[in-house]
Amino acid sequence: MRWVAAVLALVVGVALFGAYGWQPSEAGRDFRSPYLAAVGSRYVDTSVARFHYIRGGSGSPVVLLSPGGTSVVGWREQFAALSREHTVYVVDLPGQGYTQLKDPDFRYDLDAMTTAVRAFLDAVGVRRTALAGNSWSGGWALAFAQRHPERVSKLALLDATGLDLRGTVMWEALKIPVVGELATKLSTGKSTVRKLAEGMMVNQDRVTDELLDEWWAPMTFRENIRATYLLERRLDWSDTERALPRTTTETLVLWGREDTIQPVERADRFAELLPHDQTHILDGCGHAPQLDCPDRVNQHLRTFFAS
C-alpha cells in the first residue's frame, strides 16, 4: 500500500504545482493583431485599469463589452455596422483582451465588473449610452443597467449570463480549487481554442484561422487566465435574476437556438422576468451569434438602437 500512497502523493504534488506553481508561456504577447492594426487600438487610464478599446463612427453612443474570454474582435462585424449611425466603443473589461489591470484588490465579482464599466464610461466621457454584451459580458451589462439605470438608454443581451442557473460541466469544474486553475492554464493552446470556438458556433466556415489567432492571443495572458476561474467562482447571478422584474431599461434579448453553453430556454426565462423586452431566437446560430450570424444580429441591433 505504500506505493499507492506514494503515487497519490506524486499526483497531488504535480497537480498542485501545475495549479499554483507552473505558468504557461504568454505566447500571445508576440502576436500582432491585423484587426487592431486596421481599426486602431486606444487606451485610457483609470485607477481600476488601463482600458483597451476601439472607437469609431459618430452619433449617439453605443458601448459593446467584449465577450467574456475574448477581446474587442468579438464585436468586429457590429463595430463596422453600428458605426454608420453611432459613436461605437468596444472595450475589454479587466481580465479580458488587452486591458491591463491596475487595482491589486480587484475582486472579479459583480461589484468589481460594474465598477469597471462605470470607470471606463467616466474616463471616455460617456454619461449615458446604449449598452450590449454577449455571454459573461451580457451579464455584466445587465448588472450595470440594474445598478445605474440613469446611465443606460437601451440594453442588448446576446446569449447572456445573468440567471441563477448552473453552467455546463466544463464551466462548473472551474469553480473547484486546483481543477479550475489547472484546466484554465491547459486550455490556452491554439488547438483547444479552435475546439472551443467550433463548439460555440454553428457556421463553421466563420471559424477562420484569422479569427482564431485574434481569439487565442489574449487568452494566453496570465491575468486573463486568472480572471477566468475567479469570475466563474465569484459572479453571483442570483442578484441579477432577482432584479429582473425591476429592470426598467428597454432590453433586446437575442439568442442562438443552437447555443450549447447557455441553452435557448434561458431566453424564455429572461422574457418572462424582464418587463420591457423584445426577444428574438436566431435559428442556425450558437453561443456567439454576433460572430456566427452577424448579418441578422446587425439588423436587430441597428433597428433597436435607432428606434
From TrEMBL:
Q: Which residues form a coiled coil?
A: none
Q: Does the keyword Signal apply?
A: no
Concerning InterPro entries, the annotation shows: AB_hydrolase_1, AB_hydrolase_fold
A Pfam family for this UniProt protein?
Abhydrolase_1
Q: Which GO terms describe its molecular function?
A: hydrolase activity
Protein keywords: Hydrolase
Q: Which residues form the AB hydrolase-1 domain?
A: 61-292
Matching PANTHER family: ALPHA/BETA-HYDROLASES SUPERFAMILY PROTEIN, LIPASE-RELATED
Annotated protein name in UniProt: Alpha/beta hydrolase
Species for this entry: Kribbella sp. HUAS MG21
